[in-house]
Specification:
The protein has about 650 residues and is mainly alpha-helical. It contains 22 helices and 4 strands.
Length: about 650
């Protein structure tokens, strides 16, 4: 049977408006808003959520009011998703400068430069690889196909915007009730220590008195984190929670119990305080070792697919030159010669930045060369993985860690150590992480455009503009979040950045707790040998606060119940998809609403401190809610479960929308 040629939704000869001012302005605003929301979410939970679905919905709703075309919607969505991708690269690396102690606060100029250089290079690298990967029919691009179907369905009249905005409103109000600008009504979480009985154990002829217990905590009353769990599903959230349970219910109690001296310390400072310190000082470094092994194991498992994809991309570069004939609208990219010139131009400020960090001209040159080579390689890897498994599963932290280790070895080899060496390797990690994040996101966007009939050249221009404007703003949001919530604290643990900081300090600065890290690496090997579903997720669960992983698990449970209910209804594919889309939109709204309100609260607190003519942010929560606040915090899970099951099922039951 002859294979039918692909036909986009909008024909090649179409002359619809596309790269317009209103499309770009809408896209830039959404990029900043969604990027800011993901900045908070990523540092809070260690996860970011793809912006492609909420961006598509908002773009459809806005363009309907503005009288825009489907191709303008495509440009707005493409530009908007830049924010989430760029901020993922930023929050996985920039907070590491603070956690490592080389910066007291986030530096705007250097942070913005890292995002600008990394994001721009990510776009330029993907332009070179677009044709090979986007037009490769063997890559399924699951999220791209789903987003394109939502856009197509929206042309029939329904966008789902009202569902998204109502969920955002609910989560925003809930965040105000939790933080209350100093007078909270709802308590976010409740904890208590359950003490074990004392035991006397004889070792080597000497008796020791052991005592301890277990710290029990309720999940954080967070619609955003529940929404994350709902989107990633039961499997991912369960594995993540397994890591939390192992860390908090096994390793922390075991460490406390096996160290008799901690009992006396706990009597003075409290068992909860001691348990928390054990988790921070012992369990977290152990989790770092597990993450390292898991990251490289993930890349090793994908080695054949990645090598094949990169080889094919390099081999087919010449096909874009054509045979001298003029290419059509759907086959035209930005000129490759100009792209390579642009890469060379962008390398200059990167060289200057690395010289400022390292203080070594030789080091700056070597790091720039390494970044360009690894940047292109990892952009291809990220693009291929997005085509294979979707951007939500793109392991850019593993790619970044690989680059960081290589850069660290180079710095040590040429004698650039201490704070300057740490800053230099974190600078490399930041640029590569932003480049890989943008590369994966852009490949996904280009595939959506390919299905809908968008012009690649205009989408590439929109991506570059989106990177520039978003990079200039996002640093302010991260700075405000750090000032109020404190990066590295339980409120903003920033797990990936913590991993980068520990690795940079350990290799270059010589401050690694190697005994714990090595044990963690052995744990990672053991998890791999036992066939663990995801050693990386288990390690992240160990690294995150229990109050952050538990609500994600609750969201996964809610999704499981919803899926079971849909299965019992025996729905056709159309109605099942309709229900699933409503659930995803509700969850996206919860995430965006709570995250954005958290940022607004942060700016409010900072604004108040400026009025008082002091740059010291006031405590976010001045009073503790009473028992009613604790019960309200738990009741939100019941309400969220009702909304995330009832509303999708009701949508599936409607005849048509």
């Amino acid at each position: 049977m002859e294979k039918r040629p692909f036909k986009p939704y909008v024909a090649e000869e179409s002359n619809l408006a596309e790269l317009t001012i209103k499309a770009m302005v809408l896209g830039i605003v959404m990029a900043i808003v969604l990027g800011t929301a993901n900045a908070y979410l990523g540092m809070r939970a260690g996860l970011t959520v793809s912006a492609i679905f909420p961006a598509a919905v908002v773009a459809m709703a806005a363009m309907r009011l503005l009288g825009g075309t489907i191709l303008e919607e495509n440009i707005a969505r493409t530009t908007a998703s830049v924010g989430e991708a760029l901020v993922a690269g930023a929050i996985f690396t920039l907070p590491a400068f603070i956690i490592a102690g080389v910066w007291d606060n986030l530096k705007y100029a250097e942070s913005t430069a890292i995002m600008l250089v990394g994001g721009t290079l990510g776009v330029l690298f993907i332009i070179v690889l677009r044709r090979t990967m986007v037009e490769d029919t063997s890559l399924p691009f699951p999220e791209s196909v789903a987003a394109a179907e939502i856009v197509k369905a929206g042309q029939g009249g329904q966008t789902g915007a009202s569902t998204l905005f109502k969920a955002m409103g609910f989560a925003a109000v809930w965040e105000v009730l939790k933080n209350g600008f100093g007078i909270p009504v709802v308590r976010d979480s409740v904890s208590g220590f359950v003490k074990f009985g004392s035991s006397r154990i004889e070792i080597a002829g000497r008796g020791f008195d052991y005592s301890g217990g277990i710290l029990l905590q309720t999940p954080s009353a967070s619609p955003a984190l529940v929404g994350v769990g709902y989107i990633v599903g039961m499997r991912v959230s369960t594995v993540l929670f397994a890591g939390a349970a192992f860390g908090w219910w096994v390793l922390v109690p075991l460490s406390v119990f096996l160290n008799p001296e901690l009992a006396g310390l706990a009597q003075a400072q409290g068992w909860e305080t001691v348990s928390g310190d054990v988790w921070r000082r012992q369990v977290r470094p152990l989790a770092v070792g597990t993450m390292i092994v898991a990251a490289f194991y993930t890349l090793y498992g994908l080695r054949m697919s990645l090598i094949g994809g990169i080889t094919r991309a390099i081999r087919d570069l010449d096909t874009s030159k054509g045979s001298g004939t003029r290419l059509g609208r759907l086959a035209t990219d930005l000129d490759f010669k100009k792209v390579f010139v642009a890469i060379g131009i962008v390398a200059v400020p990167m060289l200057v930045l690395y010289f400022i960090f390292s203080g070594s001209f030789l080091g700056a040159i070597l790091l720039t060369i390494v970044m360009l080579i690894l940047g292109f390689l990892f952009a291809a890897v990220a693009g291929y993985l997005v085509g294979l498994i979707g951007s939500s599963n793109n392991p850019i932290s593993g790619l970044t860690l690989s680059a960081l280790i290589i850069a660290s070895i180079i710095m040590v080899a040429i004698g650039v150590t201490g704070p300057k060496g740490v800053m230099a390797v974190l600078g490399v990690a930041g640029v590569i992480c932003c480049a890989a994040g943008i590369a994966g996101d852009m490949m996904q966007d280009l595939k959506v455009g390919y299905i809908l009939g968008g012009s690649p050249r205009k989408m590439e221009i929109a991506e570059i503009i989106g990177v520039v404007f978003t990079a200039l703003v996002l640093a302010f949001a991260i700075m405000a979040l750090h000032k109020v919530y404190t990066i590295g604290s339980d409120l903003l643990p920033a797990p990936q950045a913590g991993l980068m900081a520990l690795m940079a300090q350990g290799i270059v600065g010589g401050g690694m707790a190697w005994s714990l890290v090595i044990v963690g690496m052995l744990l990672g090997v053991a998890l791999i040998l036992t066939g663990s579903l995801s050693p990386m997720l288990i390690a992240v669960g160990m690294y995150l606060p229990f109050t952050a992983t538990a609500p994600i698990f609750v969201g996964g449970i809610i999704r499981w119940f919803m899926d079971r209910a849909l299965a019992r209804k025996n729905l056709d594919e159309t109605n099942r998809t309709k229900a699933e889309n409503v659930g995803v939109l509700l969850s996206s709204g919860f995430i965006a609403g709570e995250s954005l309100m958290a940022v607004i609260v942060a700016f409010f607190v900072l604004g108040h401190s400026l009025i008082d003519k002091s740059w010291e942010a006031a405590p976010l929560i001045n009073v503790t809610p009473g028992p009613l606040g604790s019960w309200l915090g738990l009741m939100v899970f019941v309400l969220l479960g009702f909304l995330l099951i009832r509303l999708p099922l009701r949508a599936a039951g409607r005849k048509d929308d």
